Amino acid sequence: MTAIARPKNLWLGRWGFVLAATGSSVGLGNIWKFPYMTGEYGGGAFVMVYLVCIVAIGVPVMMTEIALGRRGRGSPIDAIRRVARESGRSGLWSGLGWMAMLCGFMILSFYVVVAGWAVSYLWKSLSGGLTADSVEGMAAIFGANNANPWNLGFWSTLVTVATMAIVGLGVQAGIERSVRWMMPGLVVMLVVMIVYAIFSGSFGAGVQFLFAFDPGKLTGQAILAAMGHAFFTLSLASGAILTYGAYLPAGQSIGRTTLMVAICDTLVALMAGLAIFPVIFANGMDPASGPGLIFMSLPLAFQQMPLGGVIETIFFLMLTVAALTSAISMIEATVAWLNESHGLSRARAAWGVGILLWIVSTLAMLSFNVGADWKLAGRHFFDWLDFLTSRFLMPLGGLGTALLAGFVLRRESLEVELGLPSAIHALWRFTIRYVCPVAIVMVFLDALGALNADFDWRWLAMVLALALLAEVVLARLTRRA
Ligand code: PHE
């Protein structure tokens, strides 16, 4: 069976997809969010659940997205419509693509603000503006950086312009060419950081904190947070991976590339933890200090250490590069859609979307200064963007993707695209049909406050075991028929 549409864009290099998709998944989620969440949710137990979520939910959903993208060869809206129609199903499933595109746009609208922090800290680090003698002093620097809308707006605008410039250049000349040097650079910087942490931090304490498994700390909240983060860190349900998958050449294995991306993403998160916590512990600081962890505690810690200034600069450069390779992936779906379905040139599409993005992200940026009082139900616009995407749009998109692939499309459609050995395919199918939907529905129940903290997870394991049994029996029966 051949692909149902002719690809317009394809990654040129053998590593094009892996570099771009790894660039997408490795971002602020790994270096900023993962360490502070691990700190907040108590370390090893959280890390363990996060790893299980990556393997049991993240990997199968990512494979599905890449397969949908490659089979439909287009932006999420077009690709999903084509794939659904090919199976004789309603084109309205493309609504999933709309949702993904909206989700990517919304994430980017607050992401550029955090990325703006990273770039401004890189600048401060270079120009000597990051010195204080206490965490309070560092907090004051962070506060001052946010308080002036012209300052903060300058940095987030810079990130917006850089993102749109790269995406506007196109898939090969913009995205692929930039990740080809940014990703190796990222790895080199991360290795420098780890080696430094080994020699000068409390490396043992960091390892202990990240990997000591204490089931007593395993609350329902931590489990659900870990699952939401698995979606975010792998760039799922936001159009990024699906669109990059649309450019994957026919011969490349989806299973293998997915594993590579997921392993790299996980390694970077763990390495970031290993680079950050030893430094925190060596200076007797609190790992549970929240979103400010890398912007307050960390610079203070660096300041007290030999060669700290250089390492600090490397750290914020690394953060900037990681954020940029993720940012471009969040908006590629929209630009590809305008380009393919509406005949706009890449550059026009990118700058047009860029203006809209600039307006929305500026509103998000204002949450930290002028608009500090503009709250709806206790949340700033910035917080709403984060909350709606990670608590609502991403899980819902993941659920839709799993249902579409597991129950709606003709079985052969993605089977051909995935090309997995039959046992592995059965495992993928079981996960997509049962594990993912059940797990995701639980996130919603939790968001609605329907799950209490001492929810008994054993009955869930039992239900899933029964479903697996039913699946195996059914597979046997249908094979006979
Ligand atoms: N995965 C990115 C990170 O961890 C964030 C992201 C989300 C990127 C959605 C693309 C789409 O920072």
Could you explain the architecture of this structure?
The relative contact order is 0.18. The protein starts with 15 loop residues before the first helix and ends with a helix. With 481 residues, the chain is an all-alpha fold. It has a single domain (14-479), classed as Amino acid/polyamine transporter I (Up-down Bundle). The mean pLDDT is 89. It contains 19 helices and no strands. The longest helix has 35 residues, at 308-342. Helix 5 (95-127) crosses helix 7 (149-169), helix 7 (149-169) packs across helix 14 and helix 11 (240-246) packs across helix 14. The chain has helices at 16-25, 28-40, 44-72, 76-86, 95-127, 135-147, 149-169, 171-200, 203-211, 220-233, 240-246, 254-282, 293-303, 308-342, 346-366, 381-408, 411-418, 422-447, 458-480. It is globular and about 70 Å long. The structure holds phenylalanine. Phenylalanine binds at residues 24-25, 27-30, 104, 107, 232-233, 235, 238, 240, 326, 329-330. The site of phenylalanine has 16 residues, from helix 1, helix 2, helix 5, helix 10 and helix 14.
Poorly predicted residue ranges: none
List each distinct ligand once: phenylalanine
The beta-strand count equals: 0
Largest sheet: none
Shape: globular
Name of the CATH superfamily: Amino acid/polyamine transporter I
| Rg from alpha-carbon coordinates | 22 Å
CATH class: Mainly Alpha
Reported CATH architecture: Up-down Bundle
Q: Helix/strand/pairing class, anyone?
A: mainly alpha
Helix tally? 19
Question: What is the percentage of strand-forming residues?
Answer: under 5%
Which H/E pattern describes the elements? HHHHHHHHHHHHHHHHHHH
Distance between the termini: 24 Å
According to CATH, the fold-level topology is Amino acid/polyamine transporter I
- What is the residue-mean pLDDT, rounded to a whole number? 89
Number of domains: 1
The level of helicity is over 70%
